[in-house]
Amino acid sequence: MAPIEAIKRWYVSLDDELQTDIAYMFVSLTLGDCQFSPAAAIPRLLHWFDLRSAGSEYEDALAAVVFRASFEYMFADRFTGASWTFPEQLFKDLIRESAEGKEANKMATTAFRLLRTIPERKAKWREAGENWNALVNSVLNDDALKQWTQEQFMASNFGPTQG
User: Fold this and answer.
1) Closest by alpha carbon to 8, among 54, 39, 40, 75?
2) Spatial separation of the C-alpha atoms in residues 79 and 141, rounded to whole Å
3) Distance set, CA 91 to CA 58, 106, 115, 116, 131 (Å)
4) Rounded-to-integer distance, Cα 28 and Cα 22, Å
5) CA atoms lying within 13 Å on the CB side of residue 101
6) Which of 18, 58, 93, 150 is the most buried (most CB within 10 A)?
7) Is the dihedral of CA 115, 116, 118, 124 positive or negative?
8) Nearest CA among 34, 45, 37, 35 for reference residue 12
């Protein structure tokens, strides 16, 4: 299976919330398409996967490298419980400041909702991270990508000829 197709399969296996988070960050930050809403970013990312898989073996492998690097830069810290300490504290501080009558009360309702959902989100990200790491270790590491690219190149340029 092509590396970018393997990434796409992993991505579409995620729940909607994670797909939205990943697509929005990737499309807006990596691709620079800031005009997309979080929900509209999903079809944009799926289109990007399809475009890259339709290219040469080098384009496919390089797209996998770009996605892997961007994704890990933006999201790898969500795979561990410790990384959620900062958001938890931030939400608690916003709620406390709101109770004290400070400026944060506009965001207190959202902060309270997000604070309540952190355990569920942590579990989703931990599972996504385990599956991601397995994918990287098997298909997306540098050696696997180079081997796949070489095999595809050899098959397309020196494979059996039709006579």
Assistant:
1) 54
2) 18
3) 44, 12, 6, 10, 28
4) 10
5) 0
6) 18
7) negative
8) 45
Interacting residues of 99 by C-beta distance below 8 A, sequence separation 6+: 108
Structure token pair of residue 41: 């970013």
Q: Which amino acid is at 127?
A: E
pLDDT digits (tens, 9 = 90+) for 25-70: 999 999 998 887 888 999 999 999 999 999 999 999 999 999 999 9
User: What token pair was written down for 151?
Assistant: 């095999």
**Distance separating alpha carbons of residues 30 and 36, to the nearest angstrom:** 13
Cα dihedral value 37, 77, 67, 130, nearest 10: -110
Burial bucket for residue 84 (CB in 10 Å: 0-12, 13-18, 19+): middle
**In the chain, what are the domain boundaries?**
3-157
Owner of token pair 């797909």: 19
